[in-house]
Fold:
Amino acid sequence: MSSGIRRRSVLSAAALGSASGSLALSAPASALPKPGAEAPAGALPAEDGYELWLRYRQVEDSAQLKRYRAALAALVWQGGGPLQRSAVDELVRGLTGLLGTRVRPRASAPAHAALVVGTPASSALIRELVPAADLAELGDEGYVIRRVTRHGGDFTVVAAHADRGVLYGAFHLLRLVQTRRPLDHVDLTERPAAPLRMANHWDNDDGSIERGYAGRSFFDWEELPRLDDRYTDYARVLASLGINGAVINNVNTPADYLAEPFLTKLAALAGVLRRYGVALYVTANFAAPIDLGGLDTADPFDPGVRHWWTEKAEEIYGRIEDFGGFLVKANSEGRPGPLDYGRTHADGANLLAGALRPYGGVVMWRAFVHDTDEKWDRQAYLDFTPLDGEFADNAIVQIKNGPIDFQVREPAHPLFGSLPGTNSMIELQVTQEYTGHATHLCYLVPQWKEVLDFDTLKAGEGSTVARVVTGRVHPYAHFGFAGVMNFGDARNWTGSHLAAANTHGYGRLSWNPDLSARDLAAEWTRMTFGNDPRVVETVSALLMDSWRTYEDYTSPLGTGYITHPPDGSVTGHFDPSPTTTTQFHKSDRAGIGYDRTAATGDGYTELYAQPTRDAYESLAHCPEELLLFLHHVPYTHRLNSGGTVIQHIYDTHFSGAARVAEMRTAWEGLRRRVDHRRFTEVHRRFGEQLTEAATWRDTLVAYWFELSRIRDERRGWLQAIVAPADTALLGGERNELPVQVVNATGTGLRTVTTLDVPEGWRSEEATAYVASREDATVRMAVVPPAAPGLATLHARPRSGAVEVLDSSLRSLARAVVVPPAARCVHALDAGPDSAPVLKDYTRLSPADGWHEGAGFGWVGNTPDATDTGLFDVVRRDYVRDSAPAVLRLRLPAGRCTAHLLTGDPNTLNRSLTVGVDGVEKARSEQLDGREFTWLRVPLDGGSSGHVVDLELSSQEDETWHLSACVVVADGQERG
Structure:
């Protein structure tokens, strides 16, 4: 676990560390705030962020505290079901902390004042204080909070038609006190805008999380059905936002969750969630009838398939009576689906909807269909609009906010409003896959508000996305919100303390999409960091400015998808990679931007209502923040400001990165106003963001200058480009690394370029004259040590005081060091026979079976092979298998060492275990995409030499990779 604490010891660890002053969410009664307890003057107790926004610290202002105590210290509850019990438990916990006095529920009301909670069915006092007509229209989730005067007493009332409404009302009341709102004349009526308010988790059964940046999954499938207190706290957090459903597994899921032992585990988890009004949902693999049922088809028209799903639904509801239903990703990015059998998405959704209908379940069918990059922007629209009206009434099409994939800037998805006969809901991404992970502060609520407020015009003026997904435009039976969550097992849940603002904002918008981003930022700040006016003002401003700041230094003007690699690893979609994403931003030497117009492009603009279509189609009227998403323009194209596109790109990248430094300075002004632990951890994050912002700035500015050769009007610089950036070097020998030095100043420069290398390496500087706006290639001499290794080299050009874009990723070389074949006992480059082989090395392919007289070969099982075409000649390809394999090597007399290179140039790579004679000798950790490691295995050929078997394996259901195997006699590595 990344937190360093085992799940089941989380709360006990907090208790042991209680000297820090942190209060765990599920702390026992003995750990609740003690009446009258106050922090020492001038010091704030350290907090670890586990409580998120459910912090119940005593009200500081004595006069305000007196008023709250008078109104709320007496809690009247006359009984109710489990949901009401959860509401009362939360009120006891929260008010005891906020009021600094022990609060206990009582059945009768005092004569003076009290807080009264309940429903008319459970409380005679509620029937007396709140007219039934006031609650009848609120449904099962609505509530009222109001001050009522009766018989000389002032009662604060939280009343609802049903228990779930009482729970939500209790959290709302606590929120009012947390944010120090007056209650003297409170009169609030609330009901959710949509019935589906979902938390979608992309968690895997092995504990990893696709697009997770807060540690590993806190769903511990090895321990379940044994329950952890963290599950209760998770349910409380969801309920505090009004979230009423949770999909607990990844959209890219195996079928296993639909069978034992998972059903027993899911039932236990559902029992916890149920107490807080949260229904459990599961992502279903469409091929489950094949994978679990042993059928030879998953065709939705096959009677056997329909019968299998019918029985499966009956089995699930027999274990989980309030099971919510299924989420499905089908026929997208290699997932199975109905199109595999010549059927439609509606056919597939209706198959599952039919099985769920008797139990009230729903199927949420994702509209994210990504088969080819060329049609990515239009594919969902083209696939789903012809099917409008064909989906079952308990099926909902789940539509991402934009047509690509959660980019920092996209137009609203054209499907919104285009399916009048098909239930629709919006999918937002709370976890920051493309917006900086947990490293960059990027508050996404303003972005979501822009999408929700976008008028589709599909049913006339006022057909906003918010109104579409809340059922106010078309007569949908089911509709709502889905948020891809950013929770993990990190102690503070979200990895970065400030990232929790996105979680809070998503949940609150799913309840009421008309809330303002600014108000939500202030609310979250007050609940998370307290009500110090300077803290509220500073943190709210940091949040509100952060999305545009991130956009400026990463993707201004709608530049688009520019991160790499597109894989499932933790590092994926984080770093800028303009050279590998040209299919998305379409930059060339003449201009930049993706032409999506009907006149000259791919026709994407035609998918919108006429007024929007006309605006998007026209260069003169296109919103400039979407200019490069919709048009390909020359670098010299003039914006409304009068400046050129290329100058705007330069300016925003520099100013955006500079604002990160200002953000860190603003945070520093909160020293001693925020507890030291959280202050320090957020400050460190800002330092990391500052470094990464410089990387984005330098990489992209260098890229577009190199393409356009148009100078920045305000700045000049030198930049280096190492090409190829991924290279294989021979250890102990002189290698030449080509480095392109580019001059972005107005005069010719004499340059000196050096190479930053690790200790023990040798390199030589290179000189060159480079004319203005031109480049010159120098060949940098470098000698690495003889032993196999991995290193990052940094090329640094210099010319007097001229600025250098030193943070550009294009000035780095990721090198793998391999010994020359002549120094090796075996020098094996693993991969398919068709792939290139390192000079003087020997190919190790699946065809190399062991035979008498051979120097190496496979014994028994032979692996598969892959050539990705990425990286250098050594790392681009590999042999792989999910089953163990034995590589036999003939060794000479004496001691030697085998070095095995494992990794993947694109996606994450599971561990490789190497054994000899049944004894494990080396094991790699799981590696993210583009990461490699060498494993070292000592061997001994004895006095006369013999053969040795290297046993290669991985964990169950995982695949090992081998890119190279070199065997070096001891002493040769030292050259």
